[in-house]
Design brief:
56% helix; single chain; two-stranded parallel ribbon; Rossmann fold; 130 residues
Amino acid sequence: MAYYLGEKIGALARSEIFESAEKTIYHNRLCVAELFYVLCRRRGIKVANDYVHAFLDAGRSVLSDSDENDIVAGAYKCERAMSLADCYVIATAKSHSASAVFARHEKDLDVEIKRKRFDVEVLFLEDLKV
């Protein structure tokens, strides 16, 4: 999202994730909806529509869409005080034995990490700044 919003950290996302042929990007339906609504609110519906379709049409990301992913995300939400969207990111990472990547630290997520570590690696792009 930071990339599409033109944020500085978005350049890091582009170079470290989007342009890396060695990394596979996974997304879920909730992430698509969140990307759309945030872009829509900040840049308008046309820009949101164009950017989200460009992201999906690029074929650089794999859709992770399964009942099991929904159940795992729901279990995280049941156990932890964090957004459902973040639960889906972590569930998607778990289902693919991947890392969950967020642009920056969020208070609720940091509290949950300190309270009890997740069963997947959680990375923040702001920690990778070079």
